[in-house]
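Example record used in the benchmark description.
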Amino acid sequence: MIKKHEVLAPAGDWECLSAAITYGADAVYLGSEIFGMRSSAAKFNDDLLKKAVMFAHENNVKVYLTCNTVPNNDEADKLSQFMVNVQDIGVDALIVSDFGTIMEAKKMAPKIPLHISTQAGVVNHKTANALYEIGARRIVLARELSLEDIKIIRDKTPQDLELEFFVHGAVCMSFSGRCLISQYLVGRDANRGECAQPCRWAYHIVEEKRPGKYFPIIENEKGSYILNSRDLCLIEHLNKLSNAGISSFKIEGRAKSSYYVSVITNAYKIATDILEKNDNSQFEIPNWLKEEVKKVSHRHYHDGFLFGKPKQGQYYESGGYIRNYDVVAIVEYSDGEFIYCTQKNKFSVGDIVEILQPKEKPFSFKVEKILNEKKEFVESAPHSQMKIYIPSNIKIQKGSIIRKRINS
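Model output (structure tokens):
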């Protein structure tokens, strides 16, 4: 019997939701305007959430709603009506962490399965079992676990308790995201989804009697990125996670772009399909797929805690991202004569671009001609959102991405 795995993608807004569904997500997670851990990505009010659930379900994709902040008293008073509303809307699960929120969900929205957020910091089988006994149907395990830790939890918990694990994306230097630095420095509470990411900032020290004179903590003129974590990438280890008992592969990134969601969802869906078509011990992804995850904006990658304590968990050189590609257009349709698309960034005749179609390997393509909406020849497409035609006998799927390398 083939073991099925879920690819769970982030959806910070409608564009990202559409991208996740187009590029193969089995489920998406998103936030409403309250109670989610990414306030900047809380784009779904009740009406839009209802439309999102309908759209996802029409495409056989599940919707998990984040409700994993640490609510204060005023916020807690809003929980009851919130739970009633989201049960009526029909979300497929609630992602929760706070004990009071869990109990309120059981009382006011008993039809919605409960997924315990990584914010709960579950790192052992006793906690997982206790949460199962009060109604949890899935645990999003803490990122700070090794493969052996995961195996022990799987072996010592009920088989109908699903285990989910983050396989890709940004990592918080604080345990399971429980951090107060942002609150202390700029008054933005990370435990309510408002983190300013001070762990990514460059730090110097200032001597009390020498105000304005900054000393780098290490010998580097850029300062020191003492808290800056590398990004997580486990696409080459999905078989190990599967063997350890993980059934849902979760991609971080509700504050990321639709391009990021498209590329990373596509890569992990293809990798998961390879996993399910082959014996786990024979799992190996092609080199192009290993390169694909590098074609989004990212920090240097590492394996997290999967093989024990990270040896290279921090990146000291900068707090920025590696970014080598721009999206230049999105395909609206093609008919074997033209590719009709919407421009996103400037590109020109003669450029070598890549076309990424849903669930397929990307391929290179030289732009020989560009026509504007009146089908007049132009040398470039310089205006955002302009509609253009690219002559081609290749039929391209709707929603495909045309991208261009921006540096070597």
